[in-house]
Amino acid sequence: MTIQRANNFSAGPAVLPLEVLQKAQEEMLNYRGSGSSIIELSHRGPEYTEVDRMARERLTRILGLGDDFEILFYQGGASLQFMMIPYNFMFGKTADYINTGTWSKKAIKEAKIFGDVHVAFTSLETNFSRVPTDDELKFSGKGEYLHFTSNNTIFGTQFKKEPASDGMLLACDASSDFLSKPLDMSRYGVLYAGAQKNAGPAGVTIVILRKELLEKARRENVSSMLSYPVQVGTLYNTPPVFGVYIFQYVLEWIEEKGGLEAMDKLNHDKAALLYDEMDKDDFFRGTAEKASRSLMNVTFRLKEEDLEKTFIEESKKAGLSGLKGHRSVGGMRASIYNACPSASVEALVSFMQEFRRKYG
Ligand SMILES: Cc1ncc(COP(=O)(O)O)c(C=O)c1O
Q: Which of 64, 125, 195, 245 is the most buried (most CB within 10 A)?
């Protein structure tokens, strides 16, 4: 049976590998002979315990994590981590933040509740069209950590490598480029990502914590659900079982495809198809500065902005979904995460060419 799948460019929740969805479909009613679905079984039983173990093992292998890191599968989205990081590590002190867009701003807003935020860089004045170079960062000299958003989902910008941090450990919101490329984990104190872009369904947030930082977490008068030291190494409450289950299969898929180096190569190739098309003339215009362009979220406008509505409408008719840009940027956004097939990107490029021929 051929399966009719959309060319899906949604920013999140987003396209997942077909193989993963098929596996979940096959196992949905009877997980490996148990006679129950994985979401009907105890999170402390042997089946889920194995899912959890495999997910941790694969993630450790894929990211090359040493035993100096802890992994948490959390609920509450990346947005809860905006609060938990300052709650645990900043309390009454200073932390440095890089402001590159909506999600950074939200992280900063939460941090201000708990201590002094030093903004090391902001690209607000150019409507967040870029990320900083290392020499533009102005540090406080007393930050507990440096927080940054590795990929700015809304504005279509991305850090090409970890920013300079003046010796501070990095705290990173990697929600929209997690597992899309290799990382230098030696720089990170904490890295977190809502799964619903590159890693799985909404409902699970992956938090990777350096033990050395964990040692410094606040332990007095803390709420258990919000305390990393309480949460680490135990199933304190029911974990997001389905999310971790799918995540485990996404990790398997990444390993089968050749790991993060292979993802990075694929992502470069896919993004190049779109950016090359955009750069051919001034009919399309990228909204991010070239050096900051994201490989995950390609944001663009039309020279004739009035035509954008037509572009969105006609693209939907052509079987391309999720291309409308975020309301704060307008225009179009093609989210082309790991699982977005090259064929979908090629279909979008053909559509763009046709649209230019028709209206250019
Ligand atoms: C970079 C980034 N951070 C945080 C969030 C918020 O994630 P959540 O909805 O899981 O809280 C998003 C969601 O789109 C995002 O793109």
A: 195
